[in-house]
Specification:
The complex is a heterodimer of chains A (about 325) and B (about 300).
Chain A: H1 6-9, H2 32-64, H3 82-89, H4 91-122, H5 129-141, H6 144-154, H7 160-167, H8 184-209, H9 213-221, H10 226-254, H11 258-263, H12 275-285, H13 289-313, H14 322-326
Chain B: H1 4-13, H2 19-26, H3 33-56, H4 61-66, H5 78-84, H6 87-120, H7 126-135, H8 145-155, H9 161-185, H10 189-197, H11 202-213, H12 215-231, H13 234-239, H14 248-258, H15 263-297
The chains are: A mainly alpha (about 325), B mainly alpha (about 300).
Amino acid sequence: MAVAGDKDLDIPRAEPGPAPPVPRARRRPRPRLRRRTELVVLLAPALLLFVGFVLLPIVLAAWDGMHKWTGFGSLGPFAGLHNYRLVLSDPVFRQSFVHNVIIVIASILIQLPLGLGMALLLNRRIRGRAFLRTLAFAPFVLPYATTAVMWLLLLQPGGFVDQVMKLVGLGGLVQLWLANLHLVIYTMIVVLTWQFFGFAMILMLAGLQGIPGELREAAALDGASGWQATRRITLPLLGPTIRIWLFLSVVGSLQVFDQVWIMTGGGPANASSTMVTYLVQHGFQSYEFGYGSAVAVIIFLICFIFALLYQRFVLRRDTRGALTRAVG
Amino acid sequence: MTDVSTILQAAPARPGPGPQPRRGRLGISPLTPVTYLAALLLVGVTVVPLLFVFVDGFKTNAQINSSATALPHPWDTRNYTQMLTSAAFWQPLENSAVIAAIATVLVVVLGAMAAFALSRYAFPGREGLFLLFAVGLLFPINAAALPLYLMLDKLGLLDNPLGVALPEAAFGLPITIVILRPFMREIPGELEDAAVVDGATRIGFFLRILLPLSRPALVTVAVLAFVQSWNQYLIPLLVFTSQQRFTLPLAVANFQTQYAQNTASILAFTALSMLPALGCFIFAQRHLVGGFTGAVKG
């Protein structure tokens, strides 16, 4: 698998700063063996853990996926790409994939403007700013599983949400939020927006704080209105932050699981299934490990291909190393 | 597009030393009702669901069934006291804490060692190795769940806290190394030279000088690792079969299916299980936002 992101993931090499190759001459000569031992001791544990639990499982899964294999015990007969073809032609998997895509699009259309707007709002000195910021970020730090249980109870037929809607005169709009085939995926989007919008906001806020105030000041002196300064100066300078958020948001949306699994189990009739709920249902619960491995590899490839394309065509424009520094 | 012509055009039109320039300097804008309405809406949408959980935990089931929106009358603390005196809450809390602690220590210790080697040693293949770790950022742990499960089965780590902590640590390594390496790189080489002149070995320099200097970055990666482990649901779901080993998110979800009719108890359990994360967040939020700022600014 090509490591096409090389240059982008890397730290700028031209950087004249205190890069490691410190002039050797000033150093006390060090036995080569000792240096090598140090390197092995420093690197081996991390490498072992990483290869053992991150790389190896997915490589083995690609192999397992080529076998008919149900239940524990040894691998079944070799089946080539049979499982992979089965997965890709299964309407339920395709439907799950479409749901993931809907979640991706919805989070971009909803969370980005909302997070950006609130960040611009909270970046000004309004009273209670710190408090508002804390509140908006709170849902993101709660375990998804617990907020899923919370929303499950909120959305029960005749539950809190329905009662509130009746109170404010919207009783006619009450639906079976989690049982309506056509609605359930949008209910999920509301839940996901509630949980993740604070992350978009906090990232944008951080980006805004990195933009020197002098720029807007100069624009104001030049007679730019607040909106003009925002549109012409702030937003373009926020570009890298927005692109990083987009990346993290898409990768996150492609592996949504907890909320859907707890609230609907992917149902009713797969109307809210995602690729990972499909994986758990069809690979794990039915003990079809060969088939499940193929599903896992396909999900992984979808994320990986997206990431490479994104690196290549979108992030490339940003300063090098933006991804490596900004994630987190 | 603010070129010379716009400056010239705009200059005479400026309304003198009015409120406008001052706004630019201080970043203060008039507090319009719209601003506050938006803020209020944000608070409402965020907080009301959480308030529902905490407040309705003080109701009996009969009260909840008659009205979910009314305030409890009377306030009944039994749901909470029952939970707080039962192992159903404390056991998963302890399990979650132990697993998150193991994962965090592993990530920080192994990540710092690797980042040190990758930042301050020159050796062939260094950039390739760094890239290998960085590519790990693209491996979603949820997609890897089934392959991980099969791996843990081979290693005999199923239904074992290590079977959760080790994968979590492994998946936390990429972000840790990616954050720590640039940080360690920027610590001036003169410091290292000085330490060598004073007779320190390179490992001594790492332990006594580099690590203490890297503390802000170490705290950031530790918080990240802890939170990710604390919130993880799918891996424990697949690994654990014995209920007494369940982590908190797993226990809450499981409680909800087991006692589906007892809404009041579920609410109290959910509220209590949110408290550690909320408490830590409010305690650490200043640091967290600061960490994000540093990370994005680079």
